[in-house]
Write a structure and sequence with these properties.
This protein is an alpha+beta fold and 391 residues long. The chain has 3 domains: 3-90, 434 Repressor (Amino-terminal Domain); 103-304, no CATH class; 306-389. It has 13 helices and 11 strands. The protein has helices spanning 18-26, 31-45, 52-64, 72-82, 86-90, 117-126, 174-200, 223-234, 251-264, 302-327, 340-351, 359-372, 374-389; strands spanning 3-4, 67-68, 103-114, 130-134, 137-144, 150-156, 160-171, 211-218, 272-274, 280-284, 288-293. Strands 4-5-6-7-3-8-11-10-9 form a 9-stranded mixed sheet, with helices on both faces. A hairpin with a 3-residue loop joins strand 10 and strand 11 (288-293). Helix 11 (340-351) runs antiparallel to helix 13 (374-389).
Length: 391
Amino acid sequence: MSGDAAATGDGRRPTPNLVLIGRRQAKGWGRDRLAREFERLGRQLDLTTPELGAMAKAIYRHETGRAAVRDEVYIQLYCAAFEATPHELFGTLSAGAANSRVCGLTSHKFVPVHLGLELLCRLIRRADLVPGSVQWAECHVGQVDHPAGRCELYAFPWGVAVFHLAEELSVPNIASLAMWRRQTYRETRQWATEWLRERTGSDTPIAHYVLSAYWLHESPWSGQELDTAMRLLSMPRVLLDRGTDDAEPSLHHAELVEQTLLREGFHDSRIDEFGIRGLSIGCASWAGLSYYPQATGRALQVSDLVDCELLVQALWCYCHRVHEQVEQGCDPVVPPEYGWRWIRAVRSRLTMTRPQETAQHAAMRRAVLETSELGKHLTTALELLRDTSGE
């Protein structure tokens, strides 16, 4: 039977199997639905399976890390249900390390969607959003029910809505996080699209992408290995096989790549590092951001990172809509109060250091702006809108 991994007596938190969770969620199944699939597969494979209720409880223990998957029947059922190998689902390299090296972090997912003013106003009314602000930008904000974690929705007056989903994770390695990230991105985009379409009554909203920021609060690494791990956390996809989104990556392969890079080092010109030695480590890339506050009282706060990314993603989405209209052969149409003069003011606010802004915050802001290329997008959108206006 499955061994209880939580009964260690040393106070360590169980480590969830994010690969199992991601595979199940990718199929749109709850644990009860997976238990019924196990029952069906058991008959097909001529396996003796426990009762449905017992299997649902076992699935919960396996996914949350409270029990290791040691029963050969369950191993066969998982592999058959997810059409994967034991290496892909359970790994082989991290089993021993998982008990002593746990990476605790908060995953912050940002999902921007362009709505336009009409749908945005409708969303604010129907979702009961209340006035708020993000740094200098006024907006409307409200809580949204999401099964995976804390979720807030921000509606910015230039026609963009941004979801912020925070999920607490404990993973044995970055490879597991990379697998989970890839498997949940499509689900998150689909959820955001369907949620907005239901609230607005329109089929036009589409969530095109998700950006992640990882706030590390429990590190199994130190020294140069920690620096390398933070770079990998800012772009974890480098651990996965290349291929289409439909191709399922291998956890075993990702763990091998991770161990090699942690041992030999990893550098990428697309990563912009920020932070102050001894206080914090931060890395920003096109794919995302990672931050580790080593001195929590003097490092950046979570709200600093979240507010920065909320603004950047809301503005990036707005600029993308301007470029999209031009590429479709149309003159870009935006609300008069959010034309090229407004973009010029926004660009100044984002690029110029504020009198009371700390060096750490300025370094983070510059790194995020550089790697997201938002400055270039703002400049191009400004020129396109000014040309269209004839001024």
